[in-house]
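> forwarded from #structure-qc
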């Protein structure tokens, strides 16, 4: 079974053409700027959208663990004790307003293949396909995952993988024969700073990318390097130049994409009732991003700015 928390159809920003984006649940990193916090745990989670809540109290009565209680006087909504919640999701079945929802469910290979193939015609006409994302889509590569990749490839559908690169090499090697391109995150080149900002150093990430490059002649798998620009954290020119120096000479590199930091994930933190730590950080100005693009191009790479 394959643990998925979201499927986005008709996207055009995670690889060429029109694509279906499949988000797998579970991630080994804990980036402080993460915009999809519900992707971090592999387990299904309880989501709560207070604006949908009608306050009928059905969930309070239904919860066998007594993990749900009303908010304080004068405040709207519910408080969920995540330590008590057992993940039975009885409350979700009783919530007719759909304020409480289950985030993540197991899909069979057949189910997911059927879902992906719904848009085959659009893939064919646009040069698109499917992009597997997360979380980290390569965190749990097993027989079912290999079967999924094989099934998609046998259907003639392009496969992209949006990855942190922080996975065992065996996981990458298992799917590499089926992958057309990677969207590969390179956040910070300094090892200790990477650890402070993501929870792990970057040694494995860099080694894995070098191994993909080493197999380029055999598989021809392209890599789009993604560099998120978080002001005060990952946005120094020095870091960008170090990234370019590491990538120089790699035949697999298609381009370097500069990803501007944004606050679009804030609502997702509210959804799972977690604190959002990035309120004080502002996205980078467009003029500054253009300067960085020129810096990358001066190092001999194609470069694109993404929001």
């Amino acid at each position: 079974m394959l643990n998925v928390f979201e499927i986005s159809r008709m996207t055009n920003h995670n690889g060429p053409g029109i694509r279906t984006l499949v988000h797998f649940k579970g991630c080994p990193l804990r980036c402080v700027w993460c915009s999809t916090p519900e992707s971090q745990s592999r387990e299904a989670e309880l989501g709560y959208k207070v604006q949908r809540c009608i306050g009928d109290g059905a969930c309070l009565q239904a919860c066998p663990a007594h993990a749900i209680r009303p908010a304080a006087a004068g405040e709207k909504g519910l408080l969920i004790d995540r330590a008590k919640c057992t993940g039975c999701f009885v409350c979700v079945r009783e919530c007719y307003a759909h304020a409480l929802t289950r985030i993540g469910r197991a899909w069979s290979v057949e189910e997911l293949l059927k879902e992906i193939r719904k848009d085959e015609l659009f893939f064919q006409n646009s040069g698109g396909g499917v992009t597997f994302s997360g979380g980290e889509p390569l965190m749990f590569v097993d027989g079912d995952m290999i079967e999924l990749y094989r099934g998609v490839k046998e259907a003639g559908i392009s496969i992209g993988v949006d990855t942190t690169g922080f996975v065992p090499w065996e996981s990458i090697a298992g799917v590499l024969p089926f992958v057309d391109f990677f969207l590969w995150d390179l956040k910070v080149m300094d090892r200790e700073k990477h650890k402070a900002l993501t929870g792990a150093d970057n040694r494995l990430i860099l080694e894995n990318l070098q191994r993909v490059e080493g197999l380029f002649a055999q598989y021809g798998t392209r890599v789009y390097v993604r560099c998120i620009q978080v002001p005060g954290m990952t946005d120094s020119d020095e870091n960008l130049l170090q990234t370019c120096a590491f990538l120089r000479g790699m035949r697999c590199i298609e381009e370097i994409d500069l990803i501007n930091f944004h606050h679009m994930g804030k609502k997702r933190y509210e959804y799972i009732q977690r604190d959002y730590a990035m309120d004080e950080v502002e996205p980078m100005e467009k003029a500054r991003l253009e300067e960085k693009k020129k810096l990358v191009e001066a190092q001999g790479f194609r470069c694109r700015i993404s929001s």
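QC bot note: The domain at 2-42+107-306 is CATH 3.20.20.70 (TIM Barrel). The chain has two domains: 2-42+107-306, 45-103.
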